[in-house]
Specification:
The structure is a single chain. Helix content is 7%, strand content 53%. It contains one helix and eight strands, in the order H-E-E-E-E-E-E-E-E. It has a single domain, classed as Bacteriophage SPP1 head-tail adaptor protein (Thrombin, subunit H).
Length: 125
């Protein structure tokens, strides 16, 4: 008898959403414009259908550190955000706001079952 449900039961992640994905994430996209001096400024707005997505946030492996340059030191804080679903339109050009904290998206990966999207994000302090 063949298994038509696949490796992950279709209803599993939906049932886990309240406890397994306790945070919310909104994906934002930038629109660029120029000010009176010709400088490029970015205005961020919500990406359609990517608001208040159920997610969890965790510490990844050793991505934290310090970067020195131009007389300044930046502290990087990396995180991994797991979104409940496959969001194929999210790219590194977007940013993620998780529980009110804004992160730059460094990398996007979708699991082999197309059930979870992983955002590898970075907060620069």
């Amino acid at each position: 008898m063949a298994n038509n449900l696949g490796v992950v039961h279709p209803g599993m992640l939906a049932n886990l959403a309240g406890s397994f994905y306790p945070s919310v994430c909104t994906i934002e996209e930038a629109s660029e414009s120029r000010n009176a001096l010709g400088e490029v400024t970015a205005t961020w707005s919500n990406l359609a259908s990517h608001v208040s997505l159920a997610c969890s946030i965790a510490e990844p492996s050793v991505r934290d550190g310090e970067t020195e340059g131009s007389g300044q030191t930046f502290v990087r804080r990396g995180k991994r955000v797991a979104l409940n679903g496959a969001y194929t339109s999210v790219t590194e050009e977007h940013r993620a706001v998780v529980d009110g904290v804004t992160y730059d998206i460094e990398r996007v990966a979708i699991d082999s079952q197309a059930k979870t999207t992983y955002l590898y994000v970075e907060l620069i302090l």
